[in-house]
Amino acid sequence: MRESNRLAEIWPPAAGGADWPDSAFDGIIVRRCLAFVADLAVILVLLIAASIIFGILGILTFGLLWPGAALTPLLVAAYFTLTLGGRHSATPGMRWQGIELRAWNGNRPGYLQAFLQTLVFYVTVVVGTALVLLVPLFNKRRRCLHDYLCGTVFIRSDI
Questions:
Q1: Fewer beta carbons below 10 Å: N end or C end of the chain?
Q2: In this predicted model, what pLDDT tens digit does every residue of 59-106 receive, in sequence order?
Q3: Domain count of the chain?
Q4: Do residues 122 and 75 lie in contact, with contact meaning Cβ atoms separated by under 8 Å?
Q5: Is there a contact between 35 and 122 (Cβ–Cβ < 8 Å)?
Q6: Whole domain around residue 138: which residue ranges?
């Protein structure tokens, strides 16, 4: 019996998940899309600034401090992991749209779960773009495919 309680702590979807009101998911798909576009704009600005800084450092160090092609994926992974795993559980775009990421049991995600959410999001987008966009249309909580795989859910932060 004790082992089943441990399973519920490790994998919250097995426990049935937190109980949010239906209003926590009103307009969540549109908010997520707008937040993602806003976050892409922020990432673009950060990427331009990082490219300038690392470009100068690369010239001064004869290429030793130039991260090359690894700069973009590292910056994107760091941006989403640090903001989703942080105290607000939301990127700046998500905060602007009034949404936040939660673990299936209602807790805020840690950095490991935030990294997993980021990684699985980009893998599912590359593998099945249509699925990412279609899955939330057929469930009450408007969860995407990567949300199911990571045990997370996006909710409105004003509930």
A1: N
A2: 898 888 788 778 889 999 999 999 999 999 999 999 999 999 998 888
A3: 1
A4: no
A5: no
A6: 27-156
